[in-house]
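Bug #77: duplicate submission created two jobs. Keeping one. Sequence:
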Amino acid sequence: MNKNHNNDNRMRVSFDLDEVLFVNPDTHKTEPKLKFPLNKIFIERLRYGTPDLINELQNREIDVWVYTSSFRSEKYIRRLFRLYGVKFNGIINGQRHLEEVQRNRKEILPQKLPNVYRISLHIDDEEVVASYGKAYGFEVFQLNAPDGEWKEKILERVDQIRKKSVGV
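Kept job's structure:
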């Protein structure tokens, strides 16, 4: 059986980067800083618990993606997260979104449209993305403040969406 075919039916969850997975250490608890010289190349700080949550989702056979409007390269994002033991199933950055979603349309589309990529749940900090979710029919979990239970809340939301999709 084709390996990629197996993943076609898997649930997908995507995360925004800035203010969601990358946070300010002055306001949020973060993962340990990378060692020199890596901390000079990869300056972003990961929200505490990020590697655990992503690995837990993947252990539950959920594909985990990044969907960011930033123009960081896919290579940069993959390398940074690999240093924390995380591998993403897919990455959509601002460039890919412009090429694959916005394309040459005259109408300006939202900065993120997770349903184009069959993403079941998108985690973002921005209210505007949450409002686009309602308008364009995609699920958003809004995460914008420090929250010690953020991982549990996301796992709970994932379980709710999974139950709804199988009609339980």
